[in-house]
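hey so i finally got around to running the thing on that chain from the lab meeting. sorry it took forever, my laptop kept dying and i had to restart like 3 times. anyway pasting the input first so we r on the same page abt which one it is
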Amino acid sequence: MTANLDLIRGRQQVIPMTNKSGGACAEGEVVVVDETTDDAFTTTNDEGKKEVVGIVAEAIANNAEGRIICSGYAPVLEVDAATARGDWLKTADTDPGKATPTADPAEGSFAIALSAVGAAGQVSAFVFPGGSAILAGSGGAWTLIEDVELGAPAATIDFQNIPDTYKHLVIEYSLRTDRAAEENDAILLRFNNSAVGYDYLRSAIYHNAQLASAEGLNASAIEVDYAPAATGQANSFSSGSVRIHDYTDGSRLPTALTQNAYLRTRTSGKLYVGQSFGQWRTQAVVSRITLLPEFGTNFVAGSRATLYGIS
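ok and heres what got predicted. didnt touch it at all, straight out
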């Protein structure tokens, strides 16, 4: 069953639905709308099915009612093949109830993997409200602009010459830094290569077994959130998403809205989930976005950030 902490972590939307699949469904199975019964779900082995309603949150017997995660963080999601962090997920054409990964958005994509697995198994994922409508719906198509996966350490991930043909931008990222002798490091974001002091502000809330908040009003970058560093949990990367709305409106102050989660170390109070808002105090069209560590020299190899435009 989904833990209470997972409900807080993912800001999930969970709804009760009746299982009409003809058999019991386990936690992590992908389900679609049942077309014969109100408020009910079933499973499918049609690849890229658009009618995904969500992920099973607990074991549900046939004809019984149970909880379905229809958006937000899903701690368990069944996949039919090796899956990387940041892969897009759609219904599989193999076993009913499983998802299959794709490197890029595809018809029927309804989630993004937040953890990795080397073969068929289970991952954690972020399930998007509206499912495939985000990708395929009228006025909401996602277009890949640039995908950066570091093969070697790098001081920044820098998206330059961003086209002005979209309504909004989204960055999906999985990051870790080389900050020495520390478990974590802040992730910074700058617009249009501006590093002027006192030019950015930021407010955040986060949860690590207790709720806390932070605020900064005068900075040279937006602190979007944190990532594991040199002495942090081995092989752990942050998972997050940054949204930049109306980035082509030069009369506005550009903003960045972030959701992030990372494991600092595998001990109580070291699993962090947060949400932050940042703003640049300059009216401008955004044409460049730079991510960089606050204290570390580089992002480590394997770090990844992907920029999408939303039309």
